[in-house]
Each structure stands twice: as C-alpha cells, then as structure tokens.
Design a protein that fits this description.
alpha+beta, eight-stranded mixed β-sheet, binds adenosine-5'-diphosphate, five-stranded mixed β-sheet, about 650 residues, Ribosomal Protein S5, domain 2, single chain, binds magnesium ion
Length: about 650
C-alpha cells in the first residue's frame, strides 16, 4: 500500500484542537472565567447556566472591565495583561498567565464580551470567532465590569460534545467549581443559577469562610470545623485550613486545596491527610478539608496545563509532612475538652447512674474494676469540692488546652539523667520480641468489655487485657518522654489539699481513725507535694503552683485523658506511695503511680460516654500499643491466643 500524503492542517483546525485540549468541559471554561474576574478585582460574580453550560455559560462581574482598545486582541492567543516576559512567570500573582483562556473559548464556542471600565463613558459589546473580533465593538449602556457569554460550547466539535456528560452532571461540576471558589473567596459575593431560575448557590461576600462552608456543604460540616494555622520560616510557607474534627466523617471526602489562591490538586497532600484521618475515622469514611497554602510564587510550579490541576512545588515532601503533622496535632488536641468538663460537673442523676451500673457490674466476682471504682454516690466529692470553691459557672469551665502537643516535636530536650536512662534500658531489656511483633502487626477486631478486647495478627486471634497493657504503655511513655511530656491544663486549677481530703473520705484510701486527723494528714500530704513540685513540673509536666493548686497533668498519650474520678486518690498516693528520697526510686514509683491512675477508667465514664470509650480503645489505645509499647515478658499473662486459622482448619478436617 502507498504511504499516505502528509498535509499541513489548516490553522483554524489546529487552534480548535488545541483549544479543545484546554477547554474540555464547561466547568474548565468557567474556572478560567472566574479566575479572570477575580484577577480583575471583582467583588460580585454572578454565573448563569443553561443546560449544564452547554447552551449557555455566562459570568458577570463588577471588576475593572476591559479597555475598549484591547477588545480587538483580547481573544487572540497569548494576549494577556498579566505577563510580559518569561521571567515574570516565576513571580506572577494572578491566576491567568498564558493568555489562552478567552482565545480557546472563542475557538470552540460563540463568545461575546460586554464590558465597561471606570474611565470610559459607556460600555462596549463585542463578539468573537476563532480568536478574532467579529465586526466592531458596539457601544452600550452598562455598569462597570464585564459580562462574558459563552454559548453552544463545542458546536463545531461534535466528538468533544459527545464526550460530555449529561447536562445535570456538567451542572454538578460547575456547582463544584463555583462553591469552592466561593468558599475560598469569602469576601466576594458569588451567585450561581440556572437560566430563569432562582440561585442554587449564593454567598454574600460578608460571611466568613466557616459560615460559607456551612451554607454550601451543610451545617453538619460547618459545625465540625477546626481551624488550623501554620507559618513556617524554614520552608517558607503559610497555611490555614478548616478541617472537620474526627467525630465527623462522610462516605465522600471533600478536599478544597488552594495554593496561592489557585484551586489545585495535590494527590500527595491528599494521601498524607487521608492517612492522618484513617487512624481516627471508620473504614472508608473521610473528612472535609479546606486548605489554603501560600508560598513564594518562585517556589510553585504554575506552568502547568490549564486542565491539569495537579501542582508541584519546592520542598514538596517537607511541606506536606509538616502540614500533615500540624493537622494531626490539632486533631489530637480537639474533641476531648468537653469530656473532662462533664466529668467535673457530675450531675446528681449521672451520679445515680454510676452507682447503679457500678453495683451491677461489681456483682460479678471477676470484676477487676471492683476495687477501683467508688460505688457510693455520697463519695463523689469533686462536685462538692467545686461548689465549696464557690466558683462561678464560667470559672468552672475546664479547658483542656494541650497546645503544647505542638511544642513536643520541636523542643526535645535530651535525657541526661542516668537514672532515667537506666529505666529505659530496663524496659528494653525486658522486651519480649515475639510479643512486640504481634503488637506491631495487630489488627483491632473489637471490644469484649471494658477490660478486654480482641485483635488479630496474621492467622491468630488474641484476647488482650486492655487496662493492663495501658498501664504498661503509660509507664513506658512517661519514661521515654521524660522531660518532653506535653501537658493537660486544668482550669480552674484544683487545690491539692482539698483533693487529698476528698481521697481520704473515700473507701479506697482505707483511712481509719488510727491514721490520725484527716485534716492534718491532708496538710502534710500537701506539704510533701508542694516541696516536690519542682521535680514533677520539670520532668513530668505535672504542675502544682505556689498556692498548692494543681494546674496541669502530663498528657501521656495524645487524646487520652485520665479519669477525674480517680484524681483525688492519685494525688494522695503521690504523697504516700512515691519514694521521694532516692532519685531512681522516685522516678520509678512516680511513673508507676501515674501509669496506674491513667489506666483506670470509671464505669461512669463508660456508661455516660460509651461511644467515646469505644473510640478511644480502638483509635487511640490500640494504635498506641502498636506503635510504642515494648511488652515485657510478664504482660504475656494478659494476652491470650484464642485460636489460629491453621488450628481451625485441623478442626474442620476432623469433621
Ligand atoms: P490571562 O488570564 O491568562 O491573561 P485570558 O485569555 O484568560 O488570559 O484573558 C486575557 C485578558 O483579558 C486578561 O489578561 C485580562 O486583561 C482580560 N480579561 C479577561 N477577563 C476579564 C475580566 N473578567 N475582567 C477584566 N479583564 C478581563
Ligand atoms: Mg485567564
């Protein structure tokens, strides 16, 4: 067969193909047009759509307008008011940079521009075809700004038109683009409507981003938002984000990413953030994320194809890692404040509940919690204590501010004390390697009760004593995070003497008349703790101030808060059980006591917040075992291998 003859394509055809590459669907064209309006400093942008943008796509703004003299060339390729030499590409602050959007649209649709600048006495209307102005611009009345009308998209490209989705689906994509820009540009009023109908989306230009997110994506998301901010001098970027807390999740994740005010995609960043949430959200569920990053224009590779929104930037890995960590820390610091607050405001009804469930549970002989949970509602004294302090409702608000979580990663002090080194070596020395491997590979299955949970590793199913493992975990974290522990702030601070008195009143303290006067005992306990306060503050982030008030507790495992029911006894035991005289002993006993306190849960907590407790076990504690726990041999007793797949098969073979 003869070879075909190679011919040069007609220029118009070439341009049309090129344009079709840039404008693939109505939403692409609209994105370019919105960016043009924003570049022109518009504060009102109104979009009208007919038939998913296929018949009509119109955008009206109140920006600078286009000068009459420029109307003749504005739709030619590579005409722009935003860039004049290549070097400018690297420092460009506006969206458009290649002068291609209008030209492309004019090659694949009927395009008209009506515009008026502030200086010119009247406006002008011009129509375009294949990059060229048709006829002369006609004078017309009108307000300052620009109306761009795109009609019959792809009228001259049948194949492209056939590739488009249904009008409804194209409309959805348009809605998507407009809503994202509307949220990011909260100071601009956006309206999106179908021709002849009332708006489907409207922002006022006066609401905050949070409010707009609520309006556009629903109040459930709006209410779950957490603001995250970050400035980084080293990698020179700033970030502010609005992300949903871990108690929100949806099947469809939503991520709005703006870099230097441009709506872009970054699969790497998306994957990193998804990774953070996957630890906390149920499988297959996702968060809502809005992220706005600003960096020097020179750092960002903006010379991407208009339809390819995937961006790359300098220090990409480092920046993504930092953002990821920042969001993670923020998530860890949220959601729990109210829990603590509630516990300190035990309502009498709730106390009743505790008593009942407490008794019910403890009928069970094997109830491990039995010795640990006070079951008499009379002894629920924290409330009384607070009342006694005559604090106002506002004062009583317990604010758990663990902002110091963020410091933790940056300010690590090196452990120099040999006693602590020794304790660390000791933990490592007792490590059971096989168990470590099991923990490292564990897949959480479910809770059996407050104490036990099931997990799987390889083909085996294990029953694990969560509270025993927790106690060891807390102990080890205290030892390894020595001097680096973030803190949990107690607001208002709690008087240690009062706490000791509450403890002495409880059965668990085992006080009897021979022990001496309670008040005197409390006084001397408070004195001891006051004297040892510098040690606890310096090394374990437990702060008792000069007035004998407990201000902070160590935050040992992020998201986990010790149960306040046991706080009085813990404080008492710090005075009585910690060996304050020798350094090694002191650290050892302090860490053990603290770990014990942190591992205690109360039936009250579990019964009032069963979901939170479950969530904590699955998403905080077991992941922490997996990540940190170096199980000593003796923990083997708390882990039971229930069955393994091969053994099950053997059973079946016999059948
Ligand atoms: P670019 O945005 O890359 O410069 P475009 O083809 O999108 O290229 O636009 C070409 C030019 O038309 C812009 O540089 C700008 O001067 C002008 N322009 C386009 N849209 C508007 C608008 N809505 N308001 C004012 N000027 C506009
Ligand atoms: Mg543009």
């Amino acid at each position: 067969m003869e070879p075909g003859i190679i011919k040069k394509l007609d220029e118009v055809v070439v341009n049309r193909i090129a344009a079709g590459e840039i404008i693939q669907k109505p939403a692409n064209a609209l994105k370019e047009l919105i960016e043009n309006s924003l570049d022109a400093k518009a504060t009102h942008i109104q979009i009208t759509v007919k038939s998913g943008g296929l018949k009509l796509l119109q955008i009206q703004d109140n920006g600078t307008g286009i000068r009459r003299d420029d109307l003749s060339i504005v739709c030619e390729r590579f005409t722009t008011s935003k860039l004049s030499k290549f070097e400018d590409l690297s420092s460009i602050g506006t969206f458009g940079f290649r002068g291609e959007a209008l030209a492309s649209i004019s090659h694949v649709a009927h395009l008209s521009i009506q515009t008026k600048t502030a200086k010119e006495p009247c406006g002008y209307k011009a129509t375009y075809e294949d990059g060229q102005l048709k006829g002369v611009p006609k004078a017309c009345a009108g307000n300052q700004g620009t109306i761009i009308t795109v009609e019959d998209l792809f009228y001259n490209m049948q194949q492209r038109r056939q590739c488009l989705k249904s009008p409804a689906e194209e409309m959805q994509k348009i809605y998507d683009v407009v809503s994202k820009y509307a949220i990011h540009n909260s100071n601009v009023a956006f309206t999106l409507k179908k021709y002849g109908e009332t708006p489907t989306l409207r922002t006022t230009g006066r609401n905050t981003r949070e409010e707009n997110i609520g309006t556009v994506f629903g109040t459930q998301i709006g209410r779950a938002l957490l603001a995250v901010e970050q400035h980084d001098d080293l990698h020179k970027f700033q970030m502010n984000a609005l992300v949903t807390k871990v108690d929100y999740s949806a099947k469809r994740g939503i991520m709005l990413l703006f870099i230097n005010n441009r709506l872009v995609d970054s699969n790497a960043l998306k994957a990193a953030i998804d990774g953070v949430y996957s630890t906390y959200l149920p499988k297959g569920m996702h968060p809502f994320i809005y992220i706005n990053i600003e960096m020097a224009a020179t750092q960002l590779d903006v010379n991407v194809h208009p339809t390819k929104h995937e961006v790359h930037f300098l220090y990409e890995d480092e920046i993504i890692d930092k953002i990821k960590r920042r969001i993670e820390l923020k998530l860890l610091g949220s959601n729990t404040a109210r829990t603590f607050y509630k516990q300190l405001h035990l309502q009498s009804g709730v106390k009743e509940a505790e008593t009942n469930t407490g008794k019910a549970k403890c009928n069970d002989k094997e109830c491990v919690e039995k010795e640990r949970v006070r079951t008499d509602s009379k002894e629920q004294k924290l409330e009384k204590f607070l009342a006694h302090k005559n604090t106002t409702e506002a004062d009583r608000t317990i604010n758990l501010i663990n902002e110091s979580f963020s410091l933790n990663t940056t300010r690590r002090s090196k452990v120099t004390l040999t006693s602590i080194k020794q304790m660390q070596d000791n933990i490592e020395g007792k490590l059971n390697v096989v168990m470590r491997k099991v923990l490292k590979e564990l897949v959480f299955v479910g809770m059996v009760d407050e104490t036990y949970a099931l997990f799987q590793q390889e083909t085996r199913l294990y029953l694990c004593n969560t509270s025993k493992f927790c106690e060891e975990l807390f102990y080890q974290r205290l030892v390894f995070e020595f001097q680096n522990l973030p803190h949990i702030k107690l607001e208002p601070s709690l008087d240690i003497k009062e706490l000791v008195l509450i403890a002495l009143d409880s059965e668990d303290a085992g006080w009897s008349t021979e022990d001496g006067d309670k008040l005197e005992l409390a006084e001397s306990a408070a004195n001891i703790l006051q004297e040892k306060a510098p040690i606890m503050r310096e090394y374990f982030s437990l702060r008792i101030n000069d007035e004998g008030k407990l201000e902070t507790l160590p935050a040992i495992v992020p998201q986990h808060y010790p149960c306040t029911t046991h706080l009085p006894l813990y404080i008492l035991r710090l005075a009585t059980e910690v060996d304050w005289d020798s350094e090694v002993e002191c650290f050892e006993t302090f860490c053990r006591e603290t770990a014990r306190f942190y591992s205690l849960t109360s039936i009250l907590e579990i019964s009032t917040q069963p979901h939170r407790h479950k969530w904590l076990v699955e998403h905080v504690l077991y992941p922490a075992f997996k990540r940190y726990l170096l199980p000593p041999n003796n923990l083997k007793l708390q882990l039971y291998e229930l069955t393994s797949l091969p053994r099950l098969y053997k059973v079946f073979e016999r059948c």
